[in-house]
Amino acid sequence: MSDPRYELLVLLADGAWHTGVRLGAAMGLSRAAIWKQIRALRTTGLEIVADRRNGYRLNAPLQLLDAGAIRASLDPQLQSALARLDVLLITASTSEYLAAIPAPAPGTMLACVAEYQTGGRGRRGRRWFSPLGRGLCLSVSWCYEVAPRDLAALGLVVGVAVAEALSALVPREAVQLKWPNDIVAHGGKLGGILVDVTGEAGGPLRVVIGVGVNVQASPGLAAEVGADGGNLRPAALDALVPGRAVSRNQLAGQLLNALHRNLSEFAIAGFSAFAPRWRARDYLLGQSVTISAGSQTLSGIARGIADDGTLLLAVGERLVPVFSGDVTLRRQP
């Protein structure tokens, strides 16, 4: 990469002190230009300590995303099916980046990961916050020749893939799924999913899937999520495995493996192959919830999902299917 921010980040990644003179010599820049790049990196949430005598250092060493390390974690089937893997420092959105690239051939996958997104999206126009180096922003592009049955449940299929990938790195029971597209751990939001589908109903269909996962806890993340209207406090992977660092490169590889398996299986088996796996992780089951869809709200008890992936809500004596909406837990009096 020729981006001077990336070159600087590589030099600082060890967490040691680096003087402005030494950094400038390594990059062919003046000390003033180095300071400009330091300020640019700080806008991503990266914590860089400055000292007049010692220079600059990160507050902690940083493992950067690396295409070779990610590919080393891929299953043999995906090694040949992954037509493209791009690793970016900063981008507006990994999903928008892939959407601007021609769709892959059926059976192959395009993937993109980024250290930081300036315009990462969540549901209903919300932003996805992830300070540089503390999370994983990953998107894949996939094509179906024929629209799979139960296409509306694709987001839940992706949720199962993400949960199963995470469970290879952290305790299985810690990871749950909140309908329709949140990954939850101990009552906090660990990750989110966004699925964009384009094409004709009869196919071919192009699918771009965005996955965001909080890997390391960030002091300012909770405030940013709350200010943007998020209804779950954030959770992080490192809190689930205290004393052990989670490799973001290994995580990216595990996510790509699981997505490839599930997207392929979904084309053949539909949602029936995934419904039991999703139900085994249902975070909302039996809880009092309120569902907001536009100006309308509906409250009741979550009773799991139907065979087509819709949420079943007990409202009085009725069992109401819910196809979309934001779900919040109701506080008990």
Describe it for me?
The structure is a single chain. The protein has 333 residues and is an alpha+beta fold. The chain is 28% helix and 29% strand. It has ten helices and 14 strands. The chain has helices at residues 4-12, 20-27, 31-42, 67-72, 76-81, 94-99, 154-166, 221-227, 248-269, 275-279; strands at residues 48-51, 55-58, 82-91, 109-117, 135-144, 175-178, 182-185, 188-199, 205-214, 288-293, 296-305, 311-315, 318-322, 326-329. The chain is globular, with a radius of gyration of 21 Å. The model is unreliable at 223-230 (pLDDT under 50).
Strand order of the largest sheet: 3-4-5-9-8-7-6
Percent of sequence in beta strands: 25-35%
Q: Please give the count of helices.
A: 10
Q: Which blocks of ≥5 consecutive residues have pLDDT under 50? A: 223-230
- Multimerization status: single chain
Portion of residues within helices: 25-40%
Counting DSSP E segments of at least 2 residues, the number of strands comes to: 14
Rg result: 21 Å
> What would you call the structural class?
alpha+beta
Distance between the termini: 55 Å
What letter string, H or E per element, gives the SSE order? HHHEEHHEHEEHEEEEHHHEEEEE
Q: Give the biggest sheet.
A: 7 strands, mixed
- CATH homologous superfamily descriptor of the largest domain: Bira Bifunctional Protein, Domain 2
At CATH level 2, the architecture of the largest domain is 2-Layer Sandwich
Q: Which descriptor suits the 3D outline?
A: globular
CATH topology of the largest domain: BirA Bifunctional Protein, domain 2
Give a brief rundown of this model.
The chain has 333 residues and is α+β, with helices and mostly antiparallel strands. The chain has helices at 4-12, 20-27, 31-42, 67-72, 76-81, 94-99, 154-166, 221-227, 248-269, 275-279; strands spanning 48-51, 55-58, 82-91, 109-117, 135-144, 175-178, 182-185, 188-199, 205-214, 288-293, 296-305, 311-315, 318-322, 326-329. It folds into three domains: 4-58, Arc Repressor Mutant, subunit A; 67-279, Bira Bifunctional Protein, Domain 2 (BirA Bifunctional Protein, domain 2, 2-Layer Sandwich); 288-329, Roll (SH3 type barrels).
